Amino acid sequence: MLTKIKYTEEDLIALIKSGDQNAFSYLYDNYSKTLFGVIYNIVGNAAEAEDILQNVFLKIWRNFYTYNEEKGRLFTWMLNIARNSAIDYTRSRQNKMNLKNYSSDTLVNEINKVHVNNVSYDHIGLKKVLTELKQDHQTIIDLAYYKGYTQVEIAQKLNLPFGTVKTKVRQAIITLRRIIK
Amino acid sequence: MDINTIISSGLLESYVLGHSTAEETMQVKDLCAKHPEIAMEIEAIEQALITYASVSAPEISGNFKENLFSKLNNTTVKTENPGSAFTPVRSVFSYKYAIAASITLLVISTVFNVLFYSKLQKTSAELSMLSNDKKQYAEQLEIQQSTLKAMQDDLAMLTDPNTKLVKLASTIATSNSMALIYWNSNSHHTYISEVQLPKPPEGKQYQLWAIVNGKPVDAGVFDLAISNGIDLQKMKEIPGVQAFAVTIENKGGSLTPTLTTMCLLGNV
Question: By C-alpha distance, which of B52, B49, B63, B61 is closest to B19?
C-alpha cells in the first residue's frame, strides 16, 4: 500500500523516465506485491509467477519512456503489461503441455484453485476479503481484473445483462474499498 | 453530466482496469481535471484493486528485489523517443533485405523453370515413344486376330461332318510319298496337308487335280514349304470330286495334267 509517500505520481514518472533507479525502487516497493498477485492469480504457481514478475519489471524499466499519462493511469499501464505477460505465458505453457480443451474455464478454475490453496497470505487476509466478497462479485472482478475481460465480454460469458455486470463490478469494488479501510 | 451518474456508470472502473476506449480515456482525463471528486474516486478504485491483488498471493522470495535490480544495471534505459532516428536506417536495411530476397526467389524460380522445362521435354518424348509402341502392338494384335480367325475357320472346316479326308498315295509302290486332302462336299472347300514329296526339279511345281466325272480339273499348285500355323494349304473349291491326283508341272501350273509325271492319287 502507498503508505510512505515520498514522490507524487508525476515526479515518480518523470524521475523514472530520466533513468532514476531510486524512483524505480520506490515504484517496485509500491506495486510489486500487486503485480505479483495479478500474475500469480493467472499462472497459479509462485515460482513461475516470480519469473514472470521479473520480466515484467524489466519490461517496465526498459519501456518506461513509452508510458503516456494521457492514455491512462500508471497502475493501469503496468497492470496491462503484467496481465498480458502472464496470459501469454499460460497460453504457451498450455501449448507446450499440449493439454486439450484449454479454455477460459480452465483459467477461471486455476484462479479458483489459487484461492483455496493452503498458502499463507498477507496481513489483511484473503479470507476476510473472500468472506465479505460475494461469490458472483468475486467471479466478475477476477474476470475483469485477472483475465482482462471487458464488461461487455463478461456479460456475454456469464450470460448476464450488461447493466447487471456494470453494477456488480462497481459493487464488488465498493465492497473491497470498505474491507481495506 | 452529473458527477454521481458518471461515478455509478462503470466507466471509471473500466478506465482503471484498462478496458476503456481511447475516447473514454480522454473523457475521463477531462473529468478528472474538472472534478476532484472523480479523481478521488479513481484513486479509491485503484487502491481497492491494488490491495485485492496484493493479498491474494503468497510472499515474494526475499532476494527477489536484489536480483531484479542487479539485472536492471545491465539494462540501458531509453530516455526519449529514439524511434524516429532509427526509422530511415531500418527502412534502408529492410529494402536491401527485400531486394536480396526478391533476387534469391527469382534465381530459385529460374532454376526450377529450367528443370521443369527439361523434364517436360523428356516426358513428351517418352509419351510419343509409348504411343508408337501402342500403335505397333495394336497392329500386331490385328494380325494375330486375323490369324486366329483363319485358324478357327480351318478348324470349323475340319470338324464339319461334310468334310472328307482323302489320303493320296504314291503311284510308285516303293515310294513313301503321300498327302492328305480335306474336301467338303457341301461348301467344296479343299485343303492339302501332311505333304510328303521330294523337292520338285528346278522350274517345276506340284499341281493338284480333282477328277470330276472322269475329267481332271485344276485345283491349284502348292509348295512343300508350309507357312506358319497349321500345316494346311487352301486349294481351289471344286464340287462333285471323285478322286484327287498330284502331277509335276511347270512353275505356275498347267491347264491339263501331264499324266507321265503323276506321283500321287487317291479316291474320295
Answer: B49
